[in-house]
Design brief:
CATH class: Alpha Beta
Distance between the termini: 35 Å
Number of helices: 5
Largest sheet: 5 strands, mixed
Oligomer: single chain
Helix content: 10-25%
Strand content: 15-25%
Order of helices and strands: EEEEEHEHHHHEEEE
Number of domains: 1
Structural class: alpha/beta
Strand order of the largest sheet: 3-2-1-5-4
CATH architecture: Alpha-Beta Complex
Radius of gyration: 17 Å
CATH topology: Cathepsin B, Chain A
Length: 253
Amino acid sequence: MGPFKIDEILSKTNAKLEGRAQTVNLYDLKPYSLIEKNEDVHFEESAESNEENNENTCATSTHSAPTAPLPNEDPDLVELEVEIPEHIFYIPVSSAWQTEKTSFLDLPLMQEHSFQDPFQFPITQPPTECEPIEKDGNCLFRALSFFVTGSQDFHIFLRETICNFLESNFELMDLEPNYVASSKMRSSSTWGTDMEIFAAASLLNTRIFVYTEFGPSWKWLLHSPLNSNVDNNSPALYINHARKNHYEPAIFL
């Protein structure tokens, strides 16, 4: 049956479909008519490239979020079309948001952000400008540190805090109790994943959009805070995953 659109990704494995009350498992789905929004963007570098030799290019980006399996012959799988609805607008965080989150995390506010005005652009295009992030395996946490404090320097603190959140909320996050230890996520240079992005969204009570490859197409994927009532008019973080191996803040669409 179908096709359906994903309305919201709820966790590493579950999503809510547009117009349907129940949730579905992402791994029970297969792509259907994935719409390519940016036909002029070409991605030529292979997935085997590593973070150290990655270029800081904002328009070539993916993310390790859970992707639907390749189409197969199972007629019971739900077909879907994956796309952020056009009424979802770019709403960057403000200095007031930074003040709130640095106070919550007991971190200093090093530099206030001044991004584009909100509600000017729907989330239908790739980022055009990104903040350069050091390529040392800590890029996700450096990007989060930049958003919160205006500096990359607090990435170790953000990594530890997110790991603490995952350990305290493993049931909410649908994780094994030893996930943090088995993934070595507390170790510097261990690459962050979609699970850490979901945890960061929940910790900061802020939506996080990641520009990523989903099936054969490139999309913005929404990571919403779990057990939260934030809506589409709330500020969000926008992250680019350049060359499939490097996270960087998207600061201009």
